[in-house]
Design a protein that fits this description.
The chain starts with 10 loop residues before the first helix and ends in a 9-residue tail after the last strand. The protein has five helices and six strands, in the order H-H-E-H-H-E-E-E-E-H-E. With about 150 residues, the chain is of the alpha+beta class. The radius of gyration is 18 Å and the shape is globular. The strands form two sheets. It has a three-stranded antiparallel beta sheet with strand order 1-3-2. It has a three-stranded mixed beta sheet with strand order 5-4-6, with no helix packed on it. The structure holds zinc ion. The site of zinc ion (ZN) has 7 residues, from strand 5.
Length: about 150
């Protein structure tokens, strides 16, 4: 397995992040983070389903509000998707994604060189009336399937 450049924060590190942002480490916030440690990229519904399966149910609206607040505080991030559902990323730092547009799943892509290449190229570009704030690279893909012989 490839070693992640940005490891997922442990529960203890998450508590520290909450404290730093003036948020209380409530049971529900900790449950949501525990689910996100496993899911990495997920919608509120994905988190709700996992928590239900674990026997620690939290309703979807509450899960969504927690995820949104964590994204607003830049503890998590939001991921644009093609199915009008908001996905959240446990890692707010800049990294590349492979987006499966059929199953609506995200995978982190470790390719610092590609990021640097695009960032360097963009430095030379000017967009009249705009200041570039950030760069978000998402590779959109569909699963490869072997065709069945008839
Ligand atoms: Zn990610």
């Amino acid at each position: 397995m490839v070693k992640l450049r940005h490891p997922i924060p442990t529960l203890e590190e998450f508590r520290t992040q909450l404290r730093r942002h003036g948020l209380r480490a409530t049971r529900q916030r900790l449950l949501v983070h525990e689910a996100m440690m496993e899911l990495v990229h997920a919608s509120a519904e994905d988190v709700q389903i996992l928590l239900f399966q674990r026997g620690t149910p939290v309703n979807t609206t509450t899960v969504y509000n927690i995820l949104s607040q964590l994204a607003d505080e830049h503890i998590y991030n939001r991921r644009p998707s093609g199915n009008n559902i908001m996905y959240f990323d446990v890692d707010p730092r800049r990294h590349l994604h492979l987006y499966d547009r059929e199953n609506h799943t995200f995978r982190n892509v470790e390719d610092e060189q590609l990021s640097l290449l695009v960032a360097q190229q963009l430095k030379r570009r000017k967009f009249k009336g705009y200041t570039i704030e950030d760069l978000d690279i998402q590779i959109i893909a569909k699963p490869t399937r072997k065709k069945k012989k008839l």
